[in-house]
Amino acid sequence: MPQDPDAIKRTLFIGNLSIKSITDRDAHNELRALCKEYGVIKAIRFRSIAFAELLPRKLAFIRGKFHSDRQVCNAYVEYTEEESAKKALELNGTEFQDKHIRVDLANNDKEHDMKKSVFVGNLDFAAEEEDLWRHFGTCGTVSNVRIIRDSKTNLGKGFAYVQFSDRASVSLALKLNGTEVNSRKLRVQRASEQVPKGKKAVDAKAGSVTSVLEGTRSVKGDKPSNKKRRTARSRNFAENRLNTANSARASAKAPAAGAQRGRGKPRKRV
User: Fold this and answer.
1) Which of 69, 76, 23, 10 is nearest to 47 (CA)?
2) Cα–Cα distance for residue pair 22/151, rounded to 1 Å
3) Which pLDDT tens digit goes with each residue over 89-137?
4) 147: β partners
5) Can you spell out the DSSP letters for the chain?
6) How far apart are CA 191 and CA 100, in angstroms?
7) CA distance 90 to 106
């Protein structure tokens, strides 16, 4: 994304784009033609790309080492006029190359209504935004889907947020708790129950979409997230197993050492 404040104002964000927009010339031309309907394009930059090898990102991009489990990416379309980016917002939620694209201004600072969103947990790491668009699309009009991803690999962390156009859809979405996507039972709850405490919570009240959607703590504040609790339990379990194994080995060596010392000293015959 451009760093110039003026350039950011005329830049459009497009999420859930097919990776074909990069790898296939025809698909790339289709994307450019779609955006060109709203104004003159200065540049298109692709981001959030998952690579199959741990190479420098530019080198991996040139060599086409894209991850097979990540078939989508994001793009920033910079126009020559700010008005062009605003007009293109009508593309949000439309289907392009068989995927529902998420379209927003790159400098979006509008207030995010958490009462229109649900938190989705226990998500398959390889799940894509389109899986959730279609799964929750039966509950109402979905305005955007955000899967929280690892900053280095761009693969999912196992949870996401789905935002609807109206609050009534949230009640219907909650009924999908326990339903399956990619053979995993989803954990669905109100997104307002996942708002973080502290600084991020202040940012959330100020209307920062990113700060709200990246929260990983519950409303209890100091209580760790489920992921951290699972990690703590796994670590404790592993440590207990290791301590038990070490104790067993130490006990086994003690008699053996004593026996060895006993064999080393000849017994006196009476």
Assistant:
1) 76
2) 20
3) 999 999 999 999 999 999 987 656 788 999 999 999 989 999 999 999 9
4) 160
5) ---SHHHHHTEEEEEEEETHHHH-HHHHHHHHHHHHTTS-EEEEEEE---BSS-S-HHHHHHHT-B-TT--EEEEEEEESSHHHHHHGGGGTT-EETTEEPEEEETT--PPP-GGGEEEEES--TT--HHHHHHHHGGGS-EEEEEEEE-TTT--EEEEEEEEESSTHHHHHHHTTTT-EETTEE-EEEEGGGGPPPTHHHHHHHTT-HHHHHT--S-TTSSSPPHHHHHHHHHHHHHHHHHHHHHHHHHHHHHHHHHHHHHHHSPPPP-
6) 21
7) 15
Q: Residue 158: left if φ>0, alpha if ψ -120 to 50, beta else—which one?
A: left
- Look at residue 4 in the predicted model and tell me its pLDDT: 85
Other beta carbons within 10 Å of 106: 18
The strand pairing partners of 95, in sequence order, are 100
- pTM for this model (two decimals): 0.67
Query: Cα separations (Å) of 149 from 131, 146, 249, 259?
Result: 15, 9, 42, 58
Q: How many other CB atoms are there within 10 angstroms of residue 50's CB atom?
A: 22
CA–CA separation, 79 vs 16, rounded Å? Answer: 20
Q: Which amino acid is at 14?
A: I
131-144 exposure pattern, b = at least 16 Cβ within 10 A, e = fewer:
bbbebbbebbebbb
